[in-house]
Amino acid sequence: MSSGPGRGLTRVTAAVGDLAMSRARTTHIVRSTDGTRIAFERSGEGPPVVLVEAAGHYRDFSSFDGLVPHLSRVLSVYTYDRRGRGDSSDTPPYSPDREVDDLAALIAEAGGSACVYGFSSGALLGLRAAARGLPITRLALLEPPLQDDNPDGTASDPLTLELGELVAAGRDVEAVEHFHRSIGVPDEIIEQSRTSPAWANMTSIAHTLVYDCILSDATTSSMLDAVQAPTLVLDSQGSTDDLTGWAAGVAARLPRGTHQSLAGEWHGVADDVLAPVLLDFFRDEP
Fold first, then answer.
1. Rounded average pLDDT over 155-179
2. Which of 65-70's residues contact partners 24+ apart within 8 Å by CB, and which partners?
3. 28-283: which CATH number, 3.40.50.1820, 3.10.129.10, 3.90.700.10, 3.40.190.10?
4. pLDDT at residue 8, as a whole number
C-alpha cells in the first residue's frame, strides 16, 4: 500500500470543515468526446486559465474558492466539476484519457488555448494533458504526486483495488477514511474533518477517489519528456519531504520546468501567497 501522502491527495487543512461559501453562479455545460456533460463556470475577463481540482473536490467543495477572486481580476478563470462529481455526468468505464478529453473540451470552450493550474491529482491530469499535446500555453502545478514506483504505468497500487472494493460494497464512508489514512493525511485533520459537513461532500463522490488512484497509477515520469509547455512546479515549505521531493523531481525532468517553494502548510499554500506567483507566471511571455 502506498505510504506517501500523494496518491490523488485531497487538500485537507485546519479549515477543511468549512464548506465553500454559497455564491451566485452560472453553470455552463460542455460535452466531452464521449458525450459526458462537464459543468463549469467562468469568472473574470482576460486570458483564460483552467483550474483542475484535487481528489475529493468539486465546485461545491472547492480548493479554489479563495484563489478565484485573486486570479479573476485579470484572467478569465474556468473552474469545473471533473467527471463523476457535482453537476458533471459520468460515462463508465473511467480512464485518464477521458479526463484529458474533458479538459480539451474546456480549453476549446475557452477559445482554443489556455493556461492550466492543477493541484495534487489535478496536477497529474494537467501533466497528462500537456504531454498529449493539448494547447496549454503555460502550466502551473502544486505538489504533483508523481512517483517512480510504477515506471510503465500498468500496475495498480493496492490502494486502488482496496478503494474499488469498498465503493463496490457501498462502504463509501470507510473508503474516504481509508483513502486519507493511506495517503498520509495527519490523524488530527482526519478527526476534525469527520465531524464536519465536508466529510459528507467527500463521501458523496467516494467513487471518484478510485478514479484519482487510477490516474496516479497510469501517470509516469516518462510522460514528462513530452510536455513542451513552460511549467512552474510549486511546493509548500510546510509539506513533508515526499511531497516536496516529488515536486522537485517533476520540475527537474520537465524540458521547460522550473521549481519554486512557497511558505505554507502541509500540502497547501495560502491563496494570498499563491495567487501573485501564479499571476506573474501566467502573465509572463512564453
1. 92
2. 65/20, 65/21, 66/271, 67/271, 67/274, 67/275, 67/278, 68/43, 68/44, 69/43, 70/271, 70/272, 70/275, 70/276, 70/279
3. 3.40.50.1820
4. 36
